[in-house]
Specification:
It is built from six helices and 14 strands. A hairpin with a 2-residue loop joins β12 and β13. About 25% of the residues lie in helices and about 25% in strands. It is α/β, with parallel strands linked by helices.
Length: about 300
Amino acid sequence: MRTRTKLLAAGVLTAGAATLAYASLIERNRFTLRRYDVPVLAPDAEPLRVLQISDLHMMPDQRRKQDWTAGLAALDPDLVLLTGDNMAHPGSLPGVLRALQPLLTTAPGAFVFGSNDYQGPILKNPFTYFNPNRVYRQGVHLPVEDLRDVLAAHGWVDLNNARSVLKAGGRTVQLVGVDDPHIERDDYAAVAGDADRVADVHIGLTHSPEPRVLDPMSDDGFELIVAGHTHGGQVRMPGVGALVTNCGLDRRRARGLHRYGASWLHVSAGLGTSPYAPVRFACPPEATLLTLVPRS
């Protein structure tokens, strides 16, 4: 009996070690492009290709992630939306810009920031994510203003608590965004208001998909809202999905395209992880090509 127990324990430990190795060495680097059609345009309108990039959590030496992200320029998107948490280290900025440079020079874009654009991550017990009342702590300050300056210098629109209109793919796109609700930098009230019906499409941006932001965006008539932050749960269980979203959004919508009120909501699982939790399971890193098509 004792021998069988030892063998069972050894098997469990071996399986656990193999799963951890897969999650940290293989799946974490299995970058994936997801594609969705989003029916938000007027009848007979030509499709509009929108690329969303989120949660790079870039470290200076992550050349594979930089190269893969840079290669997304080959998709020839009409518009690029960057939804925050780009950096994970004070020396991350050159790597972020290396990843984004081909897109910065070829496509119009817009961005909002996440908490890990302002300050870096810290080592923490992963089980604290199940405690909605935990005290949120951040690490070293990051070069967020340098990142903002470079993105803006290339003509990308800063949507941190702002509204704007731009041209993309020959269409007029109205945009609204908030700074990161996860660290209470959002101020949607300052930019709230009905969507301009003259625009061809209306898109909202937020890093963390908090209902207090999503609800008024949807009520104001923004047909598509994009967010990141959740990492899709980062660790998903077969038949269960995400165990936690790290925000007020329900687990069912931790990643992917879903209806949200009168709007479509896309939550990206993102391309990175915290350097202190470098694992993904059943949730590979991703960017998303959202093809806006006519409403049926």
